[in-house]
Amino acid sequence: MQKFALQRLLNRHAKCHSEIKRYLCTFCGKGFNDTFDLKRHTRTHTGMPYKCDQCEKSFTQRCSLESHLRKVHGTHHQYGYKERRSKVFVCEDCGFTASLFDEYVSHLSLSHPFSAQLIKLNSSGAMSKFKSDISPSSSSLSGSSR
Which of 6, 13, 92, 133 has the most CB within a 10 Å radius? Predict the structure, then answer.
């Protein structure tokens, strides 16, 4: 029998045994109990954005790539205190990846203007800084770069 140190961890685990799946994959209809599992699964349809630069393997999660690099290629990444890895922004609708937030937002705006990702960014306020950085003459969102 599994033991959980925190009640919230037990609650989360209990959901995996539930017949009701709140989050459904738009590609195949498979159900999941949380958004993280759905996002990880969706990438099996849209592509694996984390690619090994030493071989042909690709992964749905950064931690899987890092584990692969460590185990297969003997590569260890050392990050200092408060030092971060470079972030990859992944479009969950088509698998497009961008290393810059503005490229990611531009892609969403042009290719998936009604996507849940873009709606979430707009409603969370995450776009406010991005929008304020764009001058009226800027073509970041209306240009034809993608």
Answer: 92
pLDDT tens digits for range 7-16: 988 888 887 7
The torsion of the CA quartet 110, 95, 62, 18, rounded to 10 degrees, works out to 110
**Angle made by CA atoms 121, 125, 126, in degrees to the nearest 5:** 55
Q: Is residue 100 part of a domain?
A: yes
Tell me if 13 is assigned to some domain: no
- Asked whether residue 126 is assigned to any structural domain, the reply reads yes
Residue 104: give the domain boundaries.
Answer: 89-133
CA 92 – CA 121 distance, rounded (Å):
13
Query: Of 43, 131, 145, which Cα lies nearest the Cα of 90?
Result: 43
Q: Are strands 50-51 and 58-59 parallel, antiparallel or unpaired?
A: antiparallel
Tell which residue, 22, 25, 29, 55, has the closest CA to residue 40: 25
In a domain? residue 107:
yes
Q: How many domains does the chain have?
A: 1
Q: What is the pTM of this model?
A: 0.51
The predicted structure's pLDDT at residue 94: 86
Rounded to whole angstroms, the Cα distance separating 44 from 37 reads 11
